[in-house]
Amino acid sequence: MSKTLKVQRHEVKYYISYADYEYARHLLATLMQRDPHQKDERGYFIRSLYFDDDYDTSVEEKLDGIEHRDKYRLRTYDPTLDWVKLERKRKHNQFVNKSSVRLSKAEALQMIDGDVDFLLEKDSQSARSIYFDLKRKFIRPKVIVDYDREVYMLDYNEIRVTFDKNIRVNTSDLDLFNPDLETQTLQRPDTIIMEVKFNTCLPSWFPTLLKFDGTTAMAISKYCQGRMHMREFYGD
After folding, report:
1. What pLDDT, in 10s, does the model give residues 62-83?
2. φ/ψ (deg, to 5) at 86
3. Where do the VTC domain residues begin and end (predicted)?
4. How far apart are CA 195 and CA 54, in angstroms?
5. What is the dihedral of CA 186, 42, 29, 220, to 10 degrees?
6. Are the beta carbons of 236 and 143 closer than 8 angstroms?
7. pLDDT digits (tens, 9 = 90+) for 94-147
8. pTM for this one?
9. Distance CA 84, CA 5 (A)
10. Which residues are CB-contacts of 213 (< 8 A; sequence separation ≥ 6)?
């Protein structure tokens, strides 16, 4: 049986300075657990290959401030692995619903080539739902985004705080499984993306811990940043 995951959560994102990141990570390390998947205290590698249709609907809806929108991606934590995750991230304001299906490397390559019929053969409601989305929207691969993620977790309401760093992008070579893929820096190294994810609510004391001067929640999309980078440098 294919592994599936479907959750709906709050998701709030911030840009913070490197100094605020260092302050927050040291504080959270005393209150929360680090993600056991981290190879070291600074986190782990993530690579996402994002898909969109010929009209770049995911980009345009984001820029237009559409409240309900979908994103599709293949995600790996090591390009030498023989499996990836196919994810559909469905967002409505601060609420996020994520569907996930594990794919083999061969299936991922099929999807990149435009063949998604194999999804119907999986014993997975998420796979079938994503299949009909992909066929209806006729999406194709657009951009690879690499970054390093550091994660802190709390069991209460499944609170998860992440720090995304060293964000890089490739818009011309979409080889998801290339460990030597050349990438370009997407933003300044002293800028960190902090995400706070949780079910239902945060404890009353939690927001005061990570309240930085001049920092407010923002609608941040690494995919959209990567596509805008492509438009700026390549005229897409």
Report:
1. 777 777 889 999 999 999 999 9
2. -95, 125
3. 8-228
4. 30
5. 20
6. no
7. 788 889 999 999 999 999 999 999 999 999 999 999 999 999 988 999 999 999
8. 0.89
9. 14
10. none
